[in-house]
Predict the 3D structure of the following.
Amino acid sequence: MINIRQLRFRYPTGTFRLRIEKLDIAQGEKVAVAGPSGSGKTTLLNLIAGIVLPDSGCITTGETRITDLDERARREFRVCRIGMVFQEFELLEYLNVLDNILLPYRISPALTLDQSVRERARKLAVDVGIEDKLRRLPRQLSQGERQRVAVCRAMLTRPRLLLADEPTGNLDMDNKDRVLDILEEQATAAGATLITVTHDRDLLHRFSRVIDFADLRETGA
Ligand code: ADP
Ligand code: MG
């Protein structure tokens, strides 16, 4: 599903270097990428999502080589085909919960917002237990609730690839398990590949495959 080859990346400023010779992740796999803060986990997700481009090497998702696309095509691919739960959620503070969940359909000309999409958004909200908060603004929610809004938004387009960046950061243990349960259930129901990035080693036992970021940078996986 995801194939990375001979990837080299660095930011225009600073000394950080990322080098991954080879990484293959199969369709439907549920993978945790573990590594300390600052090791480049968010950078890797941003590369897979086409938010940033590598200096060299290629990244293929399904049939699409995202590293060959221009910025506009990468954005379209990301919004329509990838579900992303950002480390800081990226909720828009002036939109209510329902409109935050519907955001992909508001920003992509390729997606049509109709009644069935609204119903799906409501159903996702029910699944994660925030259906009574659809009219609230993000600032009127707890951290755990905001996180669940981000998960609903990521799932809305039924993406075959779900990327979750520290989705349990800042949550207590009960909420951590809850958010991971939701992500796993949703990924299973959609047959989606799930890549969760975390520095929380207590959570790793839940995943079928754990990639140690330090090993990945040395040898590939
Ligand atoms: P992680 O998610 O594992 O904590 P990141 O991928 O966020 O790590 O960051 C990896 C390294 O790249 C860090 O040293 C960080 O300071 C650096 N970095 C992140 N974003 C930028 C940027 N936009 N410009 C320069 N350096 C950056
Ligand atoms: Mg990070």
